[in-house]
Design a protein that fits this description.
Number of strands: 5
CATH architecture: 3-Layer(aba) Sandwich
Oligomer: single chain
Structural class: alpha/beta
Strand order of the largest sheet: 4-3-2-1-5
Largest sheet: 5 strands, parallel
Order of helices and strands: EHEHEHEHE
Number of helices: 4
Number of domains: 1
Strand content: 15-25%
Length: 117
């Protein structure tokens, strides 16, 4: 099974990205046979920024993203969304890659389930 999570929400300020990554990491933990795909769009593109610093006791989206990647999830970032937010020339979480709408639509068609946040 292939599950696609589309994250539109910013990494901090709402629970959208946090909850999407919680689901992704739980899927990776309990259902290793599932291919987890994460596509970052709009302010969700900011989830892939490297070197995030958060206060002690506060969740860190970068660490959650790295856990997903280390467990085999694929992470792609909307190129035009990244460009609009000035992310094209800064360090991104290792393993994530800039992508495009055509690739997202291919993932949508090829996925068994699509969740949006």
């Amino acid at each position: 099974m292939k599950i696609l999570l589309i994250i539109n929400g910013a990494p901090y300020g709402s629970g959208k990205a946090y909850n999407a990554l919680r689901i992704a990491n739980q899927l990776n933990k309990e259902h290793q046979e599932v291919e987890v795909r994460i596509f970052l769009m709009a302010d969700g593109a900011n989830c892939a920024i490297a070197n995030q610093t958060t206060p002690n006791g506060y969740y860190n989206i970068e660490r959650m993203m790295k856990l997903s990647l280390n467990k085999g999830a694929k992470v792609k970032i909307c190129g035009s969304c990244a460009e609009a937010r000035g992310l094209k020339n800064i360090p991104l979480v290792e393993g994530s890659e800039i992508s495009n709408l055509a690739e997202l639509t291919n993932w949508v068609v090829d996925s068994d389930k699509v969740l949006t946040f």
